[in-house]
């Protein structure tokens, strides 16, 4: 195996290091975050850092770098208190990637891509019409990460919309059936296929396959 | 689409809600965290919350629930200051899942599974021998998430080991080639296939495919 030390990583060319370090922690979720300004200008931007935080209450977290393209999302969710999380589907990965361009706050990415905004149940923030799994969230809290000037944002899930055939009888979502993609690094999009589900692991007990994949 | 409100989510049976909410934010990374106690007892446990935090310095973050099975990992990394992150490969998803059983601190999961511990370059924490991408990390900081009593742990990447054929010329790791899996919910394991890579997105410019998938 090739071995990189911290000193060697620090000396890598900046773009090489960005590609390398962004992919070395494994696959990441692929979500479009929808928000709206107080002036009514919508924003949609791709995020690879959304992750599960807890089920009861239903919480998620994600990382924001307010000095870059994420700034509009940050300002919107701080001012309106709401945002949406929309799964990226294999059918629109290129349109999703385009939302990472640094448009200023006067332009909506919905106008610059083929993604369509959609409003559901009087929720103020726009959803992505094409997504098959969408969450309406309220801003819950933020933690400033002093190690690299990021914010870790906590959102509380208020609404979930999901196609019926995606959900198994035990509540689990078959994300393969939703054609949800994941992200490898800064710019790689991948489509996962479910290999298996396993029963709850207990000490010195066998682990078995769960057959219910939402068929 | 089926719509769940916050009130309906709160009233779901506990296990149903856990499966549902754990899968609704998209695919998650699949990593085994290796650590060692001051007494020399090793620990390896599966985590689905490891995510990229920054490239320079190279930082990652993950969520710990110190009251559950994660406690040994937490105590070890706080006392020794080191831990490893090892990609879960499709060849050992069942062994990886077994590490989620709640063994007490006197038992090493390396003795209870077919996973082998490995020591590289005098790093104190054990790596997983079978993994094709492994990181040696130091504990950098922690943030207490008061919303649900979790810790957000920041690790600094000190060593990266990667099979040579996995890395593209621009530094990107082809995680499909590494056979790295991702996680759907609490217990689903999925194998991603790369669909495409795209060029850096700029306002009003086309986005193109990147052909270098590390061939």
Describe, in plain words, how this protein is organized in 3D:
Chains A, B: One of its GO terms (molecular function) is oxidoreductase activity, acting on the CH-NH group of donors, NAD or NADP as acceptor. Chains A, B: Belongs to the flavoredoxin family. Chains A, B: Its cofactor is FMN. Chains A, B: Keywords: Flavoprotein, FMN. Chains A, B: InterPro entries: Flavin_Rdtase-like_dom, Split_barrel_FMN-bd. The structure is a homodimer of 215-residue chains. By secondary structure, the first copy, chain A, is an alpha+beta fold. Chain A has a single domain, classed as Roll (Pnp Oxidase, Chain A), CATH 2.30.110.10. The first copy, chain A, is built from 5 helices and 13 strands. In chain A, the strands form 3 sheets. The first copy, chain A, has a 7-stranded antiparallel beta sheet, covered by helices on one side. In chain A, strand 12 and strand 13 form a beta hairpin. The first copy, chain A, is globular and about 55 Å long. Strand 13 of chain A pairs antiparallel with strand 13 of chain B.
Short description:
Chain A has 215 residues and is of the alpha+beta class. Chain A is 17% helix and 37% strand.
The oligomeric status of these chains comes to homodimer
User: Largest chain-chain contact?
Assistant: A-B, 117 and 117 residues
Number of helices of chain A: 5
Percent helix of chain A, as a range, is 10-25%
Give the full name of the CATH homologous superfamily of chain A: Electron Transport, Fmn-binding Protein, Chain A
> Strand-residue fraction of chain A?
35-45%
Question: What structural category characterises the helix and strand content of chain A?
Answer: alpha+beta
Give me the count of strands of chain A.
13
Rounded mean pLDDT of chain A is: 95
Q: Provide the CATH top-level class of chain A.
A: Mainly Beta
Shape label of chain A: globular
């Amino acid at each position: 195996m090739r071995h990189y030390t911290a000193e060697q990583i620090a000396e890598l060319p900046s773009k090489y290091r960005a590609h390398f370090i962004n992919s070395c922690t494994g696959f990441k979720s692929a979500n479009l975050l929808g928000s709206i300004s107080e002036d009514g200008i919508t924003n949609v931007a791709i995020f690879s850092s959304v992750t599960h935080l807890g089920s009861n209450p239903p919480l998620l977290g994600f990382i924001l770098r307010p000095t870059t393209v994420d700034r509009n999302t940050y300002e919107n969710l701080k001012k309106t208190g709401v945002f949406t999380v929309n799964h990226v589907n294999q059918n629109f990965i290129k349109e999703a990637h385009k939302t990472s361009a640094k448009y200023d706050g006067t332009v909506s990415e919905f106008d610059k891509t083929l993604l369509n905004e959609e409003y559901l149940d009087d929720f103020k923030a726009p959803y992505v019409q094409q997504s098959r799994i969408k969450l309406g969230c309220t801003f819950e809290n933020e933690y400033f990460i002093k190690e690299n000037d990021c914010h870790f944002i906590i959102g509380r899930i208020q609404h979930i919309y999901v196609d019926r055939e995606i959900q198994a009888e035990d509540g689990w979502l078959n994300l393969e059936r939703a054609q949800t993609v994941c992200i490898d690094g800064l710019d790689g999009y991948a489509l996962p296929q479910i290999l298996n589900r396993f029963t709850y692991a207990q000490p010195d007990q066998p682990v078995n396959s769960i057959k219910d994949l939402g068929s």
